[in-house]
Amino acid sequence: MSFEHISEKNIQELDSEIETENTKKIEAALFIAGKFLSLQELITLTDVNPILLKKILSDLEDKYKNFGINIIKKENSWKMDVGADYTW
Fold this sequence. Notes:
The chain is of the alpha+beta class. The chain is built from three helices and three strands. The protein is 56% helix and 16% strand.
């Protein structure tokens, strides 16, 4: 089997697709849980590598900080919740 057709661009595209899919898994887990999930619970639910999981959670915190929902971190657990401006 020849791997000559695999280029750096293909590898970057594949990495991007994998990260996008992992992000969707994490968003779905946080959304459906309705409670704080520990790192271990998120790993179990999403099968995402812990290092990548922490990076994606940080990215999601940034992504949602100006939206009506937020990713909230409390100790070593995360939750998707209504933004503070809309808790009424």
